[in-house]
Structure formats: structure tokens, C-alpha cells
Structure to design on (105 residues):
């Protein structure tokens, strides 16, 4: 009998588009790197940029909320990989130091 591989979702929080938690699609990673939020949850985010981010680095991510409100969250880079070659794009998975609350922080 052939072995059956199953995939168990290990995420602590469901992820989705940025609007799901009330933030814009674009953010800034310190020291000024523009990133696009691919997916976000209460405990982390997947971002895309044109520069690589060092795994295990700690940084700050500035998010845009409704009405021009901005706030900064501390993040730790879990992993980073090449997402596209032409043009060169990178994706990075990041964990928040504190869980986000919907639309505010």
C-alpha cells in the first residue's frame, strides 16, 4: 500500500489580505525598505520587496491604517527567498513580537 502524505496547517492564526485586519497593502521595513503585504495574520506577515531580508533579523514594520493612521510593530524575519527573477523580487515571512488587533495597535 502506498504511503499517503497529508498536510497539517501549523499556522497559529488564519492569514489573508491586508484589508482583512484593516491595514493597507504597502508598508515600510526599517531602515526604509518599501514592502508589499502579500498576506497577514494577527501573528505575522508575508511581504514582498526588491531587496533580500536577512533571516533571524529583528526590525520594525510600519503599517498604514484607516484615515492615514500609521503604527510600527516589531518583527523577526523567519525566512526569505527569491520569489521572481525578472524583475528580481524577494518574499520574507515575518513574525510579530506581539499579536495585532484588528485595525489598531
Amino acid at each position: 500500500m502506498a504511503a499517503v502524505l497529508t498536510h497539517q496547517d501549523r499556522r497559529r492564526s488564519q492569514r489573508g489580505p491586508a484589508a482583512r485586519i484593516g491595514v493597507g497593502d504597502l508598508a515600510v521595513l526599517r531602515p526604509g525598505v518599501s514592502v508589499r503585504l502579500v498576506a497577514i495574520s494577527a501573528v505575522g506577515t508575508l511581504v514582498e520587496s526588491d531587496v533580500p531580508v536577512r533571516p533571524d533579523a529583528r526590525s520594525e514594520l510600519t503599517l498604514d491604517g484607516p484615515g492615514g493612521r500609521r503604527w510600527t510593530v516589531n518583527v523577526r524575519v523567519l525566512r526569505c527567498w527569491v520569489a521572481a527573477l525578472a524583475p528580481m523580487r524577494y518574499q520574507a515571512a515575518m513574525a510579530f513580537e506581539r499579536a495585532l488587533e484588528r485595525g489598531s495597535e
Q: What stands out?
A: DSSP finds no helices and six strands in the chain.
